[in-house]
């Protein structure tokens, strides 16, 4: 009808890229999850600022495990992006390969974190610092673990031939979550490993 | 199953609710009858009504708790309640009113009204909507279940450490509160995400951001606030649970922790939250009050900006709850000034409402009385808030009944009054029946008089030095009369609320039939039948102004609104997605149907916190596994929703 404000036009149908509601939902989820980590980091700095003794207790943490872990996570974000680019072009093999590498890198990160946890001279209940360390890195590891579950599901769905060049909203949304996990780690890394050297 | 096509030119049609196409839409969108249908429904209208009913049930529970407390305090040296029982009652009263009534009741309104106001057929995430309701209900039940074992939360709704550390409160009282609040946080967060995406994605074509109703602004602002605020309280409670159950030292001085960390995290959440539970209610007034003044709201843009400003400032004032904790003077000055600045956006809204009444032709319905009464109570609560924002006065008044008076003026004033007024306004839309106006007058005047008689003397009790949260007081301190008046006023208020409940039940059965638009209101929800059909709109309206149903009377922009002509979208459950600011048609959204996944996921989560409460780690494992399976089933890509590869058609 000519008098309606919007003339007939072709619209995409369903979950398509940034048209998908899920894409918007993930942004909102990342905002609130980002706030959660901001409050965790606030708790760290607040307790650090009120500490009477030397902070961190037992001296500054070493980089031997955390730096390789950080590099692995950052590389994992690039491989996830590589996979996403693959499915954007309809290349299933590239999606599977990229996500497969990301999965392995994520698992290696968790294993490295496990080694670091094991080698710490303190436990969960030793002091406020140790409680913070295990809680904040634990929260992050949980997020990595959830990210890995998402990547596994995306690989299964890709293998089922659910995604193509024009329909892969789930893959883009999952990749966005994975990037968030990487970015949050950088914040956690700076808090626990860099900040003590600045004070 | 056939995949949806990549692109489609949606048919633009003119349809009414009695056409054969509307019949088919009805079958597509209608939830199956029966208990199963009730459990799996994702219809925003039934979820909205459930939210409202559940929240009112909690309001009544919280009211009963208050009534018992006022019986205890009506005279000095009463022994109706033991100190332990009194602690649990005042704590659960606060928890109930603030967390289980005030926010959910507003979510109920927004859930019910938003898609109708926005010209959409459902919320952006219908399943998430159902999930948000179920987790709210289960979290509420989880919190109340603690009464069964006689160990309800008992350290006040803001739950300060070290009162709540295991050393001083060893029972499950606080653990129940901590885990229940984490689950409730999930509900609030997903609800907030749903509102935000709904606003930005599912407005009718042409409803640009400067044309949305004010309640939408209020709920949007509150939802964005919630996204940032809720993690603080969930984290605070989680850390407290770790301290209590696993011996960590976040709040424990002996291990290098800080009790004040609790207060910071709690109030970083708590103060924005106060605005989250009043801004949508102020939005209700901004939308409904002008209808009874027979004119548009004065200063739409100013009120919208004031809403957002209030929320932003609300994140910078949390320390005014902590003036007496020994923080540095610079910090006190800053937060005191920030708290006073909030007066400005609040006053903008108040003057806009007054100007609307002043320059309009008021119709004195019950709803109008509630909104006008709200303005009065809001100003009183605002003044006492301004007073306690001043550090020296706060030092005198903190932890006295003055603060109790303030919080009740603010929360009952800005939440309960607009909510009851909002029910008078929208009840006809929800049920097709008008509430009785005669009963409504009695309802209003009893509530208004009872409220002021009950709560105003609390200011005086506070100035006379009566501390809050004491289970009784000795004779001869000069507190007897004010407490007697407060108790009597509270009972008068309760009778008013009872009349409201009676009116709802009576009018639902015998009320006058309302018709689609009994108040001659301007917004889209009034263009639908009362109650609206399952699909809301036979065709998606096209919007040309802020007041689509008043366009024949108001000057407006270059284009007209069309409420009976627009996109048909009838291939399954569909609605239109539009661009975030200009609301130009952007995508055909394929909407999910009714499903049990949200309910199963919510059951899994409440099972998880139950297991965690009793350290049944195998139960936590099982519940986590069910959570994962339910989430995967929920998110499994579906061809019908256009989530999978397009299959070449032909």
In brief, what are we looking at here?
The complex is a heterodimer of chains A (199) and B (650). With 199 residues, chain A is mainly α. In chain A, 72% of the residues lie in helices and 1% in strands.
Notable features of this structure?
heterodimer; A: 199 residues; mainly alpha; 72% helix; B: 650 residues; three-stranded antiparallel β-sheet; two-stranded antiparallel ribbon; 6 strands; 4% strand
Describe the structure.
The complex is a heterodimer of chains A (199) and B (650). Chain A is built from 5 helices and 1 strand, in the order βααααα. Chain A is mainly α and 199 residues long. The longest helix of chain A is centred in the last third of the chain and has 32 residues. Chain A is elongated, with a radius of gyration of 21 Å. With 650 residues, chain B is mainly alpha-helical. In chain B, strand 5 and strand 6 form a beta hairpin. In chain B, helix 3 packs parallel to helix 5 and helix 9 packs parallel to helix 12. Chain B is globular and about 75 Å long. In chain B, the strands form 2 sheets. In chain B, strands 2-4-3 form a 3-stranded antiparallel β-sheet, with no helix packed on it. Chain B has a two-stranded antiparallel ribbon with strand order 5-6. Classes of the chains: A mainly alpha (199), B mainly alpha (650). At the A-B interface, strand 1, helix 1 and helix 4 of A face strand 1, helix 6, helix 7, helix 8 and strand 4 of B. Strand 1 of chain A pairs antiparallel with strand 1 of chain B.
């Amino acid at each position: 009808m000519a008098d309606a404000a919007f003339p007939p036009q072709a619209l995409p149908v369903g979950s398509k890229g940034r048209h998908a509601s899920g894409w918007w939902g993930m942004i909102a989820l990342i905002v609130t999850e980002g706030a959660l980590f901001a409050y965790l980091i606030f708790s760290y700095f607040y307790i650090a600022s009120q500490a009477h003794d030397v902070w961190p207790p037992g001296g500054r943490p070493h980089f031997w495990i955390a730096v390789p872990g950080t590099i692995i996570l950052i590389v994992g974000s690039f491989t996830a992006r590589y996979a996403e680019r693959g499915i954007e072009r309809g290349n299933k093999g590239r999606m599977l390969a990229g996500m497969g590498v990301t999965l392995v890198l994520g698992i290696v990160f968790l294993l490295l974190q496990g080694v670091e946890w094991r080698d710490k001279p303190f436990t969960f209940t030793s002091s406020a610092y140790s409680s913070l360390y295990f809680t904040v890195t634990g929260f992050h590891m949980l997020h990595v673990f959830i990210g890995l579950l998402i990547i596994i599901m995306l690989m299964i769905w890709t293998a089922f031939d659910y995604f193509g060049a024009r329909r892969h909203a789930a893959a883009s949304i999952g990749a966005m979550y994975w990037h968030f996990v990487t970015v949050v780690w950088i914040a956690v890394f700076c808090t626990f490993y860099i900040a003590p050297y600045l004070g | 199953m056939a995949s949806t096509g990549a692109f489609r030119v949606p048919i633009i049609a003119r349809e009414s609710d009695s056409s054969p196409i509307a019949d088919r839409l009805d079958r597509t969108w209608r939830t199956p009858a029966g208990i199963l249908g009730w459990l799996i429904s994702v219809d925003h209208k039934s979820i909205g009504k459930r939210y409202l009913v559940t929240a009112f049930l909690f309001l009544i529970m919280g009211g009963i708790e208050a009534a018992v407390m006022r019986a205890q305090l009506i005279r000095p040296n009463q022994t109706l309640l033991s100190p332990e029982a009194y602690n649990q009652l005042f704590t659960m009263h606060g928890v109930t009113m603030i967390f289980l009534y005030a926010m959910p009741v507003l979510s109920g309104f927004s859930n019910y009204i938003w898609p109708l106001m926005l010209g959409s057929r459902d919320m952006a995430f219908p399943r998430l909507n159902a999930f948000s309701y179920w987790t709210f209900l289960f979290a509420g039940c989880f919190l109340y279940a603690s009464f069964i074992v006689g160990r309800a939360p008992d350290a006040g709704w803001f739950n300060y450490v070290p009162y709540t550390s295991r050393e001083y409160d060893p029972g499950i009282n606080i653990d129940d509160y901590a885990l229940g609040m984490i689950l409730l946080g999930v509900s609030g967060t997903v609800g907030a995400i749903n509102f935000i995406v709904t606003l930005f994605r599912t407005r009718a074509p042409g409803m640009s951001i400067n044309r949305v109703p004010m309640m939408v602004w209020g709920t949007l602002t509150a939802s964005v606030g919630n996204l940032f605020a809720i993690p603080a309280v969930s984290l605070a409670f989680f850390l407290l649970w770790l301290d209590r159950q696993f011996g960590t030292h976040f709040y424990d001085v002996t291990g290098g922790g800080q009790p004040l960390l609790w207060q910071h995290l709690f109030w970083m959440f708590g103060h924005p939250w106060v605005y989250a539970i009043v801004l949508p209610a102020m939005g209700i007034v901004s939308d409904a009050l002008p209808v009874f003044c027979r004119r548009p709201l004065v200063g739409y843009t100013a009120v919208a900006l004031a809403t957002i400003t209030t929320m932003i400032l609300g994140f910078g004032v949390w320390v005014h709850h902590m003036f007496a904790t020994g923080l540095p003077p610079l910090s006190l000055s800053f937060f005191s000034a920030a708290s006073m600045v909030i007066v400005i956006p609040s006053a903008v809204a108040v003057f806009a409402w007054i100007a609307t009444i002043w320059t309009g032709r008021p119709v004195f319905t019950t709803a109008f009385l509630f909104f006008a009464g709200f303005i009065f109570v809001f100003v009183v609560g605002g003044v006492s808030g301004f007073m306690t924002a001043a550090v020296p006065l706060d030092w005198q008044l903190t932890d006295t009944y003055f603060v109790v008076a303030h919080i009740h003026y603010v929360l009952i004033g800005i939440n309960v009054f607009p909510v009851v007024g909002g029910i008078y306004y929208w009840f006809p839309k929800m049920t097709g029946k008008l509430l009785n106006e005669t009963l409504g007058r009695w309802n209003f005047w009893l509530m208004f008089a009872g409220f002021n008689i009950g709560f105003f003397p609390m200011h005086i009790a506070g100035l006379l030095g009566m501390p809050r949260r004491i289970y009784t007081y000795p004779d001869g301190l000069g507190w007897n009369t004010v407490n007697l008046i407060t108790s009597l006023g509270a009972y008068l208020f309760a009778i008013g609320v009872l009349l409201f409940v009676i009116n709802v039940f009576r009018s639902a059965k015998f009320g006058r039939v309302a018709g689609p638009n009994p108040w001659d209101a301007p917004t889209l929800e009034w263009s639908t039948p009362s109650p609206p059909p399952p699909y809301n709109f036979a065709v998606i309206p096209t919007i040309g102004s802020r007041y689509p149903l008043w366009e024949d009377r108001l000057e407006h922009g270059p284009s007209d609104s069309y409420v009976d002509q627009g996109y048909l979208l009838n291939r399954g459950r569909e609605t239109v997605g539009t661009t975030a600011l200009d609301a130009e048609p952007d995508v055909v959204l394929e909407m999910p149907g009714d499903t049990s996944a949200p309910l199963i996921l919510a059951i899994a989560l409440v099972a998880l916190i139950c297991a965690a409460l009793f350290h049944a780690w195998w139960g936590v494992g099982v519940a986590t596994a069910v959570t994962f399976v339910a989430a995967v089933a929920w998110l499994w890509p579906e061809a019908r929703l256009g989530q999978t590869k397009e299959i070449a058609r032909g």
